[in-house]
Amino acid sequence: xxxxxxxxxxxxxxxxxxxxxxxxxxxxxxxxxxxxxxxxxxxxxxxxxxxxxxxxxxxxxxxxxxxxxxxxxxxxxxxxxxxxxxxxxxxxxxxxxxxxxxxxxxxxxxxxxxxxxxxxxxxxxxxxxxxxxxxxxxxxxxxxxxxxxxxxxxxxxxxxxxxxxxxxxxxxxxxxxxxxxxxxxxxxxxxxxxxxxxxxxxxxxxxxxxxxxxxxxxxxxxxxxxxxxxxxxxxxxxxxxxxxxxxxxxxxxxxxxxxxxxxxxxxxxxxxxxxxxxxxxxxxxxxxxxxxxxxxxxxxxxxxxxxxxxxxxxxxxxxxxxxxxxxxxxxxxxxxxxxxxxxxxxxxxxxxxxxxxxxxxxxxxxxxxxxxxxxxxxxxxxxxxxxxxxxxxxxxxxxxxxxxxxxxxxxxxxxxxxxxxxxxxxxxxxxxxxxxxxxxxxxxxxxxxxxxxxxxxxxxxxx
Length: 463
Known about the structure:
Layout: H1 20-28, E1 34-37, H2 43-54, E2 57-60, H3 64-71, H4 83-92, E3 96-99, H5 102-108, E4 111-114, H6 129-141, E5 147-150, H7 158-171, E6 179-182, H8 192-199, E7 202-206, H9 209-222, E8 227-229, H10 233-258, H11 261-264, H12 268-275, H13 300-303, H14 311-337, E9 346-350, H15 366-375, E10 379-383, E11 396-397, H16 400-403, E12 410-413, H17 425-431, E13 437-440, H18 447-450, E14 454-456, E15 460-461
Parallel strand pairs: 1-2, 1-4, 2-3, 4-5, 5-6, 7-8, 9-10, 9-12, 10-11, 12-13, 13-14
Antiparallel strand pairs: 6-7, 14-15
Helix pairs in contact: 2-4, 5-6, 6-7, 10-14, 14-15
């Protein structure tokens, strides 16, 4: 690690006359205070890593409960390995604190890191209101030599055309008096600390060369894999969005191929797996839909703000959005093959969050699956060990033990939490002799062990 700052220490990085070594040492010694805006499931791990490295971080979040938990040395983000212990250690050492006042954090900091949500509206347009509000607060406390790093995913050109003029207006400073860079988070829930610390290189693109240099300097200390500086902020924004678009389009291809399973009479995923042994082929795995706060939204960061044709992105979204309905069709098909109607059936949905082990339901396919089943008259129950409330779903919540005692006509595995992989199917059949069909949306079950007719998306029926 770099030696602590000497008497030449600096308290800012952008445009500082000191050389890189002195600036780096000052940052590591806590002479350059950092503020992280947004302490959610990605923001708190980021703030913790910054504090672990620089020992001088204040986090800002508008949720008083979140701030109170952190100030008490706790973590509201669950199932994130190592985070709870790290936050306790950092708060106890005075390296990390939190506030509900972003302007207070802005006045205290020389480096400002923004990682707040970018939702989309009902009209599928990116909603930048949260980012705008945070930028205004930062601008009110911005001083010459400060550096602002935007980590949250935004439509390309947002940093240059929206954030920069807003900071200038709020601060009274001009471009060149402070730094601004886009430095996208490349982090997954359940491995956030690992990702931030260097599972992948950090991407950095500034609105000017000095911004890129200053941002590169600090992220080199956080990320063991190093930094990939790119030409400008818009390029960095595009890198992040393109990563999500690739996955959405690729999953759409896999999902569309899965629809050929029955007509072809083959296990489509076997064909995909073998095709992927060719080095230029990397088809993803089909499933009941695409969820989360990233992949289902990022296409609209390109579709809505720009005039270029985006028919491929729109088609991919339509394909992926159709998979919950396809899943329900397979439930109906399985019930009808046993002489039952959906309207007279009991269906259990296993897994309501969009990913195993993650407490996140945004865009989860279980919501439309439950809504459509309920609209067809089915009695729907849902099981998810991650959730205390299911008010967003058209179903009744039960725990796994109670679910397996129901007289279920159909079971749909949407999200394979590890608790579901150890189900004793003999107990299921002892409690219910009415089970007609099990839909495996994630290729997670051993069909032979289920002891009932199984339809696996991408593989077809087990017979």
